[in-house]
Amino acid sequence: MRKAEFVIILILAVLLPFTPACRGEEEKEGAHELEEIIVTAPKPEDVPDYVQDVISPEEIRRPVMSGSVLDALGNQAGIQFQRGSLSSSESGKLRLRGFNENRLRILRDGIPVHRDGSFGNGPVDWSTLSGEDVERIEIHRGAGPAKFGNTLGGVVNIVTRKPDEKPETSISTVYGSHDTWDTKASHAWKIGPAAWSLSASHYETDGYLRNNFTERDNFSADLSFDLSGGFEMGAGLTVSDMENGNPVYNRPDSPYYKGGDPDADERELGGPGIGARLLQGAFAWGERSATEDENIAFTAFGLKKFASGHIRTDFRIWNQDRHEVYYDATDSNKKIYERDTKAEDDNWSLQAEAVFQLGAHRLEAGGEVQRHGWGEQTVRFIDESYFNGSINFFKFIREGFKGQPDTLGYYAAYVQDTWEIHPKVTLEAGLRQEWFEADSIDSDAFGFDWPAEVGELDENHADPRVALTVRPWEGGSFTARFGIAHRYPTSPEYFWWYLNNGTGFFNTDFNSEEARQYELSYEQSVSDMFDFFVRGYYYDIRDYIASTFVPGVGSVYYNIGEAEIKGTEIGVSADLPYNLRAWANFTWQEGDKDDDPWDTENQLAGQLADFPEIMFNAGLDYAYGEKFTARLWLNYVDDREHFKGRELTELDAYTLLNASATYRVCETKHGKWDLLLSAANLLDEDYEEEEGYPMAGATVIGGVRVSF
Predict the structure, then answer these.
(1) Which residues form the TonB-dependent receptor plug domain (predicted)?
(2) How far apart are CA 206 and CA 261, in angstroms?
(3) Tens of pLDDT along 505-517?
């Protein structure tokens, strides 16, 4: 254990039991010790019925090594992580029921935060989503109401705290393993018709892998006004600036191997990748090689309230500029390559909804538009002596390319009726119409001389959704749900498929995914002291989009003819004596496939890749009012089969034991002071979430938070 980690644990261990309560004029007359109580977290009243799980702000604000809200999802049924580093600087690392982020909808206050995902971006940048201003996270699995589209796996909605007439300010700073610092601040207030919320954070870490450092700054601001006549309008801005080190290949077969660092593969955090074009391939780059991203997004909304409902529109536009630089493996001062990229180029979305309660019917209608594309890439410097002859063929490595903004278009409209037939029976029925188009790609858009003989994609589908909920007795409910859902290709999927067709490397048809999803669930609660659920689900998916990476070629995307995903989720939580609450959830899942043109020898024997059959989470919470809270929990993930090119490998199962605690040092009318501590992987387990990138052993992070 490093000295800094030992000091943190020692200080907190000494302070927690003996720190005195605040004294002074702020104490109320007749002050007495807090009664021992258990804090439970029932679902808030404004959470829709279709939401299955709600993550509380206490869990979201627990300090974590990544500095993002992603870790708060790790204890939920059906959740799997596929991260290559603790800092969560990479995207596309959340899976729900086996579906990755391309097949999920990640929302912030109901607005999708998905990126185009070009140049290795991935769909969601979790590192920009800090938990300091988050009120809760809502999770819905499967094909939900018709308002949700272009998703197979479900919805994760991050709900931010709404300002009220009492100003709220919070500042926290924590320090931990691998020289990780995470400092956050937030402020929210409503004065008359105006309301605003501000948040900022600074995060830095040396990282666990070789040259996997991270430094980032985030800022967000939201402003709204209540106007006469029931109107409200507002706007928001989010900005992030981050630099991440590109992990260096560090295995014994490398001439530049460092035994003091973990064995791991290399990784380019930008794209298209240069590794396959370098003379030494994976060995080529070394320390200081890094990728810097600057992100900015602007949102605006308008709302009209009525006695029986509302009409709302939301607009979002975002851009991302990326800078990459690579240095020689033997000399970290010798630059070998540098380029600039407009990774997200004025991509935008617009959505609208109308919601009205008419008697026993809750009627909803709306739609959305999304336009995506990728921008230009400019090579600032290249030492061609480090590259093989393929740069004469793949000239985008040497010269860059002009990109192709506004390539993909997605449009949708929906209607939904939630009908309370009887106080114990509710019927949901909806229909979603979707249109998708992808333009043909100019050969100059990705730096190739020949025209690819591929046309445009143009599809449209009508997807029905229906659900029936019966509540036969107090606290109990049965729900049956059926839905058809489509998921359309992202720009990277479409781009690489288009490219491989143009080169003739792997020429297949390419279609959107279609899933028929069936689900049965039962939930039971008893006096807010005991909760239980069981869910069974089955997905029948046609044209499942799969991918692999081929050295010397790049990413390859194609359709698997048919895939089936089925599973069961069981969860229970209960209040216990001595201010304890125990909880656990169990997931069994299975993924089968048929007609896989890449796995022609059926090495996976019908199984989907990277798919654990068993996952289990369990924990024990303790709460002494707001004075002291603690949690001890474990996460188990079964072994998984994985393709590396055409080579089949296996990732071992792992079990993680974790703990966290919050202690209220002082509370006066001027503020609240809390000590924070979290420890992960206490058993120091060796494990990988993604093949080739070991995760850290035991880590600890702790600090202080003040709220006023």
Answers:
(1) 53-155
(2) 12
(3) 777 788 999 999 9
Q: What mean pLDDT is reported for the chain?
A: 88
Residue 684: exposure state from Cβ atoms within 10 A (0-12, 13-18, ≥19)? exposed
Is the pLDDT at 237 greater than 90, yes or no?
A: yes
Distance CA 245, CA 34 (A): 48
Q: Tell me how far apart the alpha carbons of residues 431 and 452 are, in angstroms, rounded to a whole number.
A: 37
Burial of 171 (0-12, 13-18, 19+ CB in 10 A): middle
* Other C-beta atoms lying within 10 Å of the C-beta of residue 103: 23
DSSP 8-class letter at 696: P
pTM of the model: 0.91
Q: Which residue has the tokens 């071992």?
A: 652
Length of the chain counted residue by residue: 708
Cα 119 to Cα 692: distance, rounded to the nearest angstrom = 21
For each of the domains in the chain, give its residue range(s) and CATH number, in order of start.
Answer: 3-707 (2.40.170.20)
Identify the three-state secondary structure at position 398.
Answer: helix
Q: Are 236 and 221 in contact (CB under 8 A)?
A: yes
The yes-or-no verdict on residue 47 having pLDDT over 50 is yes
| Matching residue, tokens 């029986």 | 308
Statement: residue 453 has pLDDT above 70: no
Query: Mapping DSSP to helix (H, G, I), strand (E, B) and coil, where does residue 121 land?
Result: coil
Model pLDDT, residue 11: 41
Contacts of 384 (CB under 8 A, 6+ apart): 391, 398
Q: Over the stretch 341-381, which tens digit does the pLDDT of each residue have?
A: 999 999 999 999 999 999 999 999 999 999 999 899 999 99
What is the Cα–Cα distance from 343 to 597, expressed in whole angstroms?
31
Q: How many CA atoms lie within 13 A of 30 on its CB side?
A: 0
* Confidence (pLDDT) at 688: 94
Q: Return left, alpha or beta for 482; rule: phi > 0 is left, psi -120 to 50 is alpha, else beta.
A: beta
At a CB cut-off of 8 Å and minimum separation 6, what does 10 contact?
Answer: none
Number of H helices, E strands in the chain: 4, 35
User: What are the tens digits of pLDDT across the range 53-108?
Assistant: 999 988 888 888 888 888 999 999 999 999 888 775 565 589 999 999 999 999 99
Residues 6+ apart with CB under 8 A from 605: none
**Arithmetic mean of pLDDT, 413-442:** 95
**C-alpha 575: how far from its chain's center?**
30
